[in-house]
Amino acid sequence: xxxxxxxxxxxxxxxxxxxALLDARLLTASVRGLGVxxxxxxxxxxxxxxxxxxxGPVRGRLVVTxxxxxxxxxxxxxxxxxxxxxxxxxxxxxxxxxxxxxxxWNSPGGPFGRLADVMVGRGLALKILEARAGAVxxxxxxxxEAAVVVGAAITRDGLLLVQQRSFPAExxxxxxxxxGRVDAGETEAVALARECVEELGVxxxxxxxxxxxxxxxxxxxxxxxxxxxVSGEPEAREHRAVRWVPVSxxxxxxxxxxxxxxxxxxxxxxxxx
Length: 273
Ligand SMILES: Nc1nc2c([nH]c(=O)n2[C@H]2C[C@H](O)[C@@H](COP(=O)(O)OP(=O)(O)OP(=O)(O)O)O2)c(=O)[nH]1
Fold this sequence. Notes:
Layout: E1 3-10, H1 14-21, H2 24-31, E2 36-40, E3 50-55, E4 58-68, E5 71-78, E6 83-93, E7 96-106, H3 110-144, E8 147-156, E9 159-164, E10 175-176, E11 179-181, H4 188-200, E12 203-217, E13 220-231, E14 241-245, H5 257-260, H6 263-272
Parallel strand pairs: 8-13
Antiparallel strand pairs: 1-7, 2-3, 3-4, 4-5, 5-6, 6-7, 8-9, 8-11, 9-10, 9-14, 12-13
Bound molecules: 8-OXO-2'-deoxyguanosine-5'-triphosphate (8DG).
């Protein structure tokens, strides 16, 4: 099976680079001007998101199969090639994050298929990988400077606390995690503890980060931490409702788009306690 790899070192933490990879516009930007179009998966990529791809008149459908702190992968599920997979793996190093991009595909057999691999497939794939490396680096460095919204993944007795937004109109009814913006001069842990007092009337202790940073806008990202209750019983002071949910309910919840990305990480958290 032909495959091509390209490796780039990005001076940013692995969870931030993982966040940059989730920006759907990055994929579109990486192929612009190369005769390839990728659309769909608006906003942030998550497992199960669908992307439409085309090279000239040839079209295909890609599905995201992995989107977490280890990187992203997408596979062709409907298209002209028997198999095609794009993947980016992340490796944390002392000097930053190593980004390993890989394209693998199977062409229809025979001499024409092999010729197409050499003439079109490899040249195009190399250009895509080069463009992608630059786009990932730039987006990750932009996210390093971004303002942070912190979220708390509060667990108790194997359940996760979620809350339902009441405003603004486009977010009302959707579920999210307690939290909010980090104010100037606050640490992320202090901001999260403050938000939990304001929103739920509880004191928490803050643990490790869960999942990747999730880009919200060009200059804002969501960063979620595991947390435990220290005192108080959560009540919806600013939200429509709060609810304790089991791991089996996470997939089906009507999340805000950014939180959907965190479902695998939240499932891992609930399964580990
Ligand atoms: N708190 C929280 N905000 C989230 C989550 N997911 C997500 O996309 N967001 C977005 C919604 C908002 O655009 C932004 C934070 O909004 P917020 O209303 O909670 O923040 P805040 O209390 O600091 O209030 P504000 O200054 O934004 O008015 O982050 C989440 O799980 N928790």
